[in-house]
Amino acid sequence: MSLPVRSSSRIAGLRRRAGLRQDELAETVGVSVATLRRLERGEIDNPPLRYLQKIAIALDAQLADVIEPEWRQWWPRPGANTPPDFGAR
Fold first, then answer.
1. Does residue 51 lie within any of the structural domains?
2. Per-residue pLDDT tens for 59-82?
3. Buried/exposed 63-83: b ≥16 CB within 10 Å, e otherwise
4. Cβ neighbours, 10 Å, residue 87
5. Is the pTM of this model over 0.70?
6. Which of 14, 32, 53, 73 is positioned for an S-S bond with 59, CB 3.0–4.6 A?
7. Are 55 and 11 spatial neighbours (Cβ–Cβ below 8 Å)?
8. DSSP 69
9. Residue 85 included in any domain
10. How many domains does the chain have?
11. What is the C-alpha end-to-end distance of the chain, expressed in Å?
12. Range of the domain at 19
């Protein structure tokens, strides 16, 4: 299932606040600029956790700060109570 494309994301906002260009963050994280753009646009509906961890570290953010709400679409699973908040603020 494809997610709707967004104009901005948590990653993009954090990157801009950190004063980094896409190419700078991509190089720091070890992904292509194209991959970072796709992440920022919401074109990857199940991004690898290692990308998100590296982005959070590079932006001096918590992992929960870079996770988009729709990336939690796997929750709730049948019989589950409530989703974990992963330290969301």
1. yes
2. 999 998 998 887 776 655 555 555
3. eebbbbeebeeeeeeeeeeee
4. 10
5. yes
6. 14
7. yes
8. G
9. no
10. 1
11. 27
12. 10-67
